[in-house]
Amino acid sequence: GIRLVIKPTVGEELKYSIKANLEVAGTEAVLNGTQVEKTIDVDKDGGYTLESRLVDGKVEFAGQSMDIPPAPATVTVYKKDGSVKEIRGDSVEAGAYRSANLTSAFFPDKDLKIGDEWTNEQKANSSSGAVAFKSTFKLVADEKVNGIDSYKITSVTKESEGDTPASAEGTTWLEKSTGRLVKST
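Given the sequence above, the corresponding structure tokens read:
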């Protein structure tokens, strides 16, 4: 079987190109930039801590392009299974937890085969402001992305409470040997 695990290395720094198409109050917006993630800790239980910052960010909104001013890094602590344990930073609020929960991978504690599905369901957390959600994942394929042996995983996450519950659908490719993100849409 296939066991999905992440094997981060302290000091490892990865850079990702980001393009996000958003809708804000009925108007389309596009965010572009580079996200830099550095592994700053790996605990004995397999949890890990990443420091993330957006560099070279720009947003296009209502026909105008604006630079995103530099902001302090955000530190996210993940459990071994890839779920978010804690987010630290100058401007961390409930939205950060909601966004992280909508986009985080979750690794089940079992062997999988291509075609298998699994879920991650979490209750609301009043101290962080995270709302209840359920994610469904599917291991779709074993394929190469930019020459990297990867697992292709689809996901659907839906918040189950609140006035405006959010949802996200996506496809993620994880490096087979390390579990690190290769590509995500």
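Residues 94-103 form the longest helix (10 residues). Try to locate this feature in the token string yourself.
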